[in-house]
Amino acid sequence: MEGRIARELISVAFKQLEYSYAPYSHYKVGAALLTAENQIYTGCNIENAAYTPSNCAERTAIFKAVSEGITHFKAICIVGGTEGRVTDYAPPCGVCRQVMMEFCNPETFEVILAINQEKYQTFRLKELYPMGFQLSHLQNERR
Fold first, then answer.
1. How is residue 21 annotated by DSSP?
2. Please, which pLDDT band fits residue 21 given cuts at 50, 70 and 90?
3. CB of 65 within 8 A of CB of 73?
4. From start to end of 1-114, where are the E strands?
5. Among the options 2, 58, 83, 110, which is catalytic?
6. Measuring CA to CA, how many Å separate 25 from each of 49, 75, 83, 87, 94?
7. pLDDT at position 134, please?
8. Active-site residue 58, yes or no?
9. Which DSSP category does 129 fall into?
10. Which residues of 115-133 are buried (b: 16+ CB within 10 A; e: fewer)?
11. How far is CA 41 from the centre of its chain?
């Protein structure tokens, strides 16, 4: 990912921390999702007292885009920390990784984990989720 684009996604993801609804864990997460058409969709985590209905920032961004007909993505930036103070990388949970597998090419989709504008790491989805379940698994079962 080009440095300028990565920094833009980092900036947008940090802005999403302001919208995070995390009254239980106090762990705020923001995400910025880059589409194949270079649009940015945003997301924040949204908690629920029953925990299970909570939604991660990454899925919020992906679901917003998909609900508007966008299903091809290049990259996502994820930032997070207690009370919104980012001091370490916030990798996506397993459920978010599986949702990414549904809509993103694991060979090319980039996941940017950032602490700030200068300190970030970029991974391909296949590095974070090397054996993710995908459509081809279902197609193999039908044969």
1. B
2. very high
3. yes
4. 27-35, 40-44, 73-82, 110-114
5. 58
6. 10, 26, 9, 16, 18
7. 86
8. yes
9. S
10. beeeebeeebbbebbeebe
11. 10
**Quick one: tokens of 68?**
């508007």
* CA gap 102, 71 in Å, rounded: 9
Q: What is the widest separation between alpha-carbon atoms in the chain? A: 50
Rounded CA gap, 56 and 66, in Å?
15
Alpha-carbon gap, residue 84 to 33, rounded angstroms:
19
| Token pair belonging to 91 | 């990798």
Rounded to an integer, what distance in angstroms lies between the CA atom of residue 42 and that of residue 101? 18
Number of C-beta neighbours around residue 134 at 10 A: 13
pLDDT of residue 74: 98
Instruction: Give the number of C-alpha atoms closer than 13 A to the C-alpha of residue 134, restricted to the C-beta side.
Output: 16
pLDDT digits (tens, 9 = 90+) for 92-136: 999 999 999 999 999 999 999 999 999 999 999 999 999 889 888
List, for residues 61-94, the tens digit of each pLDDT value. Answer: 999 999 999 999 999 999 999 999 999 999 999 9
Total H helices, total E strands in the chain: 5, 5
